[in-house]
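Protein modeling request. Please complete all fields; requests missing the sequence field cannot be processed.
Requester role: graduate student
Desired output: 3D structure, token encoding
Chains: 1
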Amino acid sequence: MNLRNLLVKCLWWGSLLWLSAACTPLAGNQAVTEITPTAFVAADLTNDGLAVIPSRACLLQQAVVIQTDRQMGDMLAWSKDSAHLAFITPVNDSWGWYQGDLVILNVLNGESRRTKDIRVAGDLTWSLSGEKIAFVILRPAEAQYSVGVYSLADGKTLDLYDVAVTDEFSSLKGIVGWRSDQVLQISESCGVDCVRYLEYNLLSGVKTVLEESRPGQDTSLRIVLNQPGVVPNRNWRNANWSPDARRVFFTDRTNVAWIGDLTASTKAALPMETLPVAESKWSADGQLIAVRTAENLYIFGVDGCR
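Delivered output (306 residues):
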């Protein structure tokens, strides 16, 4: 470690003022009981005009997630009722790259569902009703990508491809979105410089080709952030606004994660590891935020424990 990095770490740890006991994360299916928020004050390195205040955020859950250095779309996805969070955990519950098991966590009671024997690779996308979730599958034996749809009603996963090969490489797929609760729009690689868009009808099993395009124009595998047209401060990284645009999640140059309250002109640091953030997702009601680093997932109640 060079002197500069040592000084940065000393500044960070020397600036933390712990004010109360930490929230207790859920263990297995244990419900949330008598947990209190962890508040601390961190050094302000953003110079954005927001006053630093103690954090009221409560760590509700922490989990292990798969690692990836590929663009594979959203690896976190909240249901529209803000009750369920989907993410991908390693098969061995410890570490893993590029694929793992899908977990659907009920944040209200701590219960979770988990797929088995299906290697989920990313691009988690809830249906309009919240009764199904689509995602990209990696078939390890074939080294080909496919698309799966998990049903909360029966806990089964439908693989939409009998034959996953769509090009001479790994046949990459992506989820464009749901046109209705029974019609899913998909992108698939169709060559070196080709991407094809299709609709798949889950009732009839019929695939309909919509158009072909070039890979540079395909956005289906990009992580979605809420960007309501507000220009972020130049020192903010990973800026992601809450659904009502009153709050913003961001990180600073030392990887401290912050929640800024734009109506009160204040900000508070989240009590989590200071590693680069790969993704953040707000719940639809704006009361919860999930943050993913390279290996870990943190779920916070931004206004305290609930």
